[in-house]
Amino acid sequence: MKYLKYSLLIIILFSFITNSICFEFRGLEFLAHFLNGEFFESKSLTGGSKHNNNNSNNPNADDEPSKGQTKYSFVDFITYNEKNFCFYEQQSLAEEKNNENRRAQLKVKCIPANGNGTLYVINSVTEVINLLAPTGNSTKRNQAGHCVVVLFYAKSCIHSSIVAPHYNALARQFPDITVAAIDAFKFHALNTEFGINGLPTIMFFHRGRPLVKFNDTQPNLNNFIKFVTKHSGIKHMSSATLTSDDFTGPLRNKIEKETDYWLYVAWIFIIMCCCYYFTKSSLYTQIVEMVKRNWRESVAHHHGS
Predict the structure, then answer these.
(1) Count of domains in the chain?
(2) Which residue ranges does the record annotate as region Disordered (predicted)?
């Protein structure tokens, strides 16, 4: 009986997920539907044989329930005001539109900085603190503050090497904004702090706090310029073109191999844990007993001969 309940629950959840219309169950409705097993259909209060016979004579009988019957269940009645119907496609489009509107509203005032049109590559923790130190305790975006565009990259990442020339040229386009690059492989603690889950990642900082990430599928100079202008209101200085110097530095467009020592430490730790738990298993005990038994038999055979 226990497994039957679990099977019915899985079937109900599967039919709920695969249906083209989604129901937003809230509070009492969700609990009531689970208790009554009514998700997508309503039951009449009385038997349906008489109702079915009337349907053959009256084509509108489905729309007009007979006496003692109703098209809606008690759950539909008590949860009518709480039920919302939506289509999956419409819901996803609405969420994307809300996210776009939210990102479009993230526009801040930037205090001109002496960037000199060159890319600032971070090499120490002190430079990270000086660059991304929060200004004051206020998080209001309508207050003017220093704006910083930061690229989180890795020298061994092929996508970072592809983005490097375009990002080198971005600093030349916005001399009043600090354009910096941080090696996520070297400063891995910042990945968790700023939610860096993929490389390369470009983030716009205002007053030392992250504002928005670059989410365009085409990471090139033109889209970088649109991204900075959209959130800062500052226009670029020159034509959006790459030069030969952009391919040589400060960020190189060639992959450099790096040894991840922390990865070796992680593997050693995993192997040690596996060995430890293996010694606590019954299979390890059987192997040890088998070796001991074979050893005793060999010793006894040797003394006997």
Answers:
(1) 1
(2) 46-68
Domain contains 121: yes
Map tokens 């971005």 to a residue: 170
* 98 phi/psi in degrees, rounded to 5: -65, -40
Which CATH number fits the domain that encloses residue 201? 3.40.30.10
Strands (E) located in the chain? 21-24, 84-87, 120-121, 147-153, 178-183, 201-206, 209-213
Q: Is residue 140 part of a domain?
A: yes
Q: Please indicate, yes or no, if residue 303 is contained in any of the structural domains.
A: no
Q: Is 237 within the bounds of a domain? A: yes
Helix, strand or coil for residue 201? strand
Structure tokens at 98: 């809300």
Report the 10 Å Cβ neighbour count for 239: 6
Q: What is the pLDDT of residues 103-139, one digit of tens each?
A: 556 788 888 877 677 898 998 888 888 888 877 665 6
pLDDT in tens, 80-89: 554 444 444 5
**Would the pLDDT of 66 be above 70?**
no
Tokens of 91: 């819901």
Cα–Cα distance measured from residue 291 to residue 222, given in angstroms and rounded to the nearest whole number: 70
Whole-number pLDDT of residue 244 = 87
For every residue of 130-188, which 3-state class applies, written as one string?
A: HHHCCCCCCCCCCCCECEEEEEEECCCCHHHHHHHHHHHHHHHHCCCCEEEEEECCCCC
